[in-house]
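dumping this here before i forget
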Amino acid sequence: MNRTGPFGKESPPPSAVTARQRTLDEIAAGTTPIPDFVARLSLRVVAMEWRAGFVAVRFRIPSDLCVEPDVAFGGHVAALHDQAAGFVMYSLLEDDRTFATTRLDVRYLTATRPGAVCAEAALDTLRERSADVRVSLLQDGRVTSESLVTEAIRKAGRRPAREGMPC
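structure:
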């Protein structure tokens, strides 16, 4: 696997691979257990290639997620964009960092149909506390939607609950 970093520098040797990068390898190999939310939201990965700052992920959109005959639900399409952007973050962040989507702007260019799709996601900008990832969803060689996904980055660990807030 090519592990060239997002700024053209070579990434650390395999002994220094992060837990998230190992998870990406397991997802790509089809050897990781499928989380409940992935199964429930039909976000199962069919195939994946990745390197630091980039992923190409194949998904299969089931026909029962169509809002019209042969037109996939836009919310599901957005979820595929979010999932691919998250995988880019997995490829980049050290284990002492975590992230959360704070913005997901999807531009729908044409209808996405049930069946095979490929999400190509690449790091656009990486800052200390946030990152922007650009995602294109392709079907039959055509881009059906594009997005800009912003991810907040922070140190891993629980934050104390705000007063009056249960979480």
